[in-house]
Design brief:
This protein has about 150 residues and is of the alpha/beta class. About 40% of the residues lie in helices and about 35% in strands. A hairpin with a 2-residue loop joins strand 2 and strand 3. The protein starts with a strand and ends with a helix.
């Protein structure tokens, strides 16, 4: 059976780092777009970038062919370069220190086993409409969180 081909743009944002953060994702399948966003009060930009990936992959109900686009070098290098060695070293860095954000890296690791994912870097704030939309969703996540406390 052919897998669904889904294009996902993700982004994270933080006002202060650490500070109030938001994440957003735009999932596109067969002409249909689903948008999600959220926020956290005390977080970092990297955690929000990772959370956007996690929440987007959680939306998928079946194994899919995914093209996931992110402007986060941290996320993409973590997945494509660092994660294999972290796993071999039981989630430790080359200097034997615990991997930062290991809780989120492990969630990403589990979720990515369910899909065939092409990880693509896109330059942020460069006019890519999908990336700009994901950025707007991440900021919407922050705004909605702030609004809930006003």
């Amino acid at each position: 059976m052919l897998k669904k081909k889904i294009k996902i743009y993700t982004d994270g944002a933080c006002r202060g780092n650490p500070g109030i953060g938001g994440w957003g994702a735009s999932l596109n399948y067969n002409g249909t777009c689903k948008e999600i966003c959220g926020g956290e009060l005390d977080t970092t930009n990297n955690r929000m970038e990772m959370t956007a990936v996690i929440e987007a992959l959680k939306v998928l109900k079946e194994s899919s062919d995914v093209c996931l686009l992110s402007d986060s070098q941290y996320v993409l290098k973590g997945i494509n370069e660092w994660m294999p060695n972290w796993k071999k070293r039981n989630w430790k860095t080359a200097s034997r220190k615990p991997v930062k954000n290991v809780d989120l890296w492990q969630q990403i690791d589990t979720l990515m086993q369910q899909h065939d994912i092409e990880w693509v870097w896109v330059k942020g704030h460069s006019g890519d409409l999908g990336n700009e939309r994901a950025d707007a969703l991440a900021n919407q996540g922050i705004d909605e969180l702030i609004g809930a406390y006003e």
